[in-house]
Every structure is written in structure tokens, then in C-alpha cells.
Amino acid sequence: MSTLLHIDSSVRAANNPNPDHDSISKNIARRFIGTWQRKRPDDDYIYRDVGVNPPDFITQDWIGAVFTPEEKRTPAQRERLALSDTLIAEVAKADVILISSPMYNYGMPAQLKAWFDQIVRIDKTFDFDLSRGDFPLQPLLSGKILVIVTSSGEFGFEKGGIREESGHLAPHLRTLSKYLGVDTVYEIAAEYQEFGDERHRTSVANARHRAESIALELSVSNLSPSLNTEIADV
């Protein structure tokens, strides 16, 4: 049995009285989740909508608590780090992480950045050793799969695209993902929302199809060794 951690970050709901206001990224992520749960109904599923329920921003007091040795932390410092501890535990438990995010001002929503800031934490998800020279930070988690779902109003943010230099969402997610213990990344993108034309409709349809396809692929490839053996023996 595996654990799937699902993080949504759009401030929009998946379903609204006006369908034009429905979150595209959340609905594509739902396609992935629906397919996954049909294939692997017994897996653990952890869900957080950080767009609607954002984590606290880190503060000077938070940083002070992080750099205080655990045995010397005050009750107030332990309480200040309680949310961070919970979020890190969810990431540590996960085998597959699904993050859906709209592109806000060419980057990730502040709420999603706040989630990462709570998790990327010294001696929890990375350690620091100057003996490593120019690369002293080393992730402490590994072996996880990340599926990124993004939506954007414009298009061409991919490598070689006409807006490659303006696309900071997916590259930032890829950079930070190593501190979640991610070894493999899948990307799903829906574009052209501001244009509202056939290109947008095709992009969303393709993204939904890709979400289902990746979920089907991973639901089989991520099976436990015993189940893989049983399938191979059939």
C-alpha cells in the first residue's frame, strides 16, 4: 500500500456557480486522483488545499525556533513549529506527491510558497555540511514521485517556448522538489486560458487525458513488489 499526498494551491474552488470561475488546475488534479483511487482504492490519501487554507508564513520567531536545539526549545517554540512538523511528516510518508498550481504573475501562488517554506527545513528535509564545498545542502528524503499540474493564462513557457524566460512556476517547483525527496517528476500543463479559444479547450482536454494516463501508469508501476510478482506470474 502506498501514500498519495495531494496539494492544491489555487484560490479558486473546483466548482463555482459560474463554471468559468472553476479552478482548472484543481479539476485536472481531480482527474488524476479519480483514476488513481479507482485503481488503488486501498492506498492512503492525504489532501491539503493550501489555496483555501494557507499555511502560516514563516517569521523571525519561526526561524529562531528552527535554529534552537530541539531539547532546548520552549513550549511556545514547539507550538510554533507544530504545523511545520505535521506538513513534513505528510511529505515523509508520501510515495507520490501531486501538486496542482495556477501560474500567478509568472510564478507560484504565495500560499504554495508558504507550504514549501514550512517544509524545507534544516535537519528535517535537508542537512548542511560545509565539507561538501560549494554544495553544502543535501536532501534527507528520497525515492518519491512528483506530479505537477499547472495552468496558465498565456502559453509557451516550456523549454524553447516563446515565453520560456517568463515561466518561473514549473522550474521553481522542480528546484524545490528535491527537498521533498523527489527523484522523478511528471508535468501536466494547461495553457491559453486568457485566450479562451480552441487552443485553450484543446490544451485542457490534453491535460486531463495526460493526468489520467500518468495516474494509470503510476498505479501499476508503483505497485508493491509482491503484487508485481503476482501480475507477472499470471
> Percent range for helical residues?
25-40%
Q: What would you call the structural class?
A: alpha/beta
Shape: globular
The total beta strand count reads 7
Largest sheet: 5 strands, parallel
* Tally of separate helices: 8
Beta percentage is: 15-25%
Rg, please? 19 Å
Low-pLDDT sequence parts? 223-234
- The side-by-side strand order for the widest beta sheet comes to 2-1-3-6-7
Task: Give the end-to-end Cα distance, rounded to a whole number of Å.
Answer: 21 Å
Order of helices and strands: EHEHHHEHEEEHEHH
Mean model confidence by pLDDT: 93
Task: Describe the fold and architecture.
With 234 residues, the protein is of the alpha/beta class. It is 40% helix and 18% strand. The strands form two sheets. It has a five-stranded parallel sheet with strand order 2-1-3-6-7, with helices on both faces. It has a two-stranded antiparallel sheet with strand order 4-5. Helix 1 packs parallel to helix 7 (198-221).
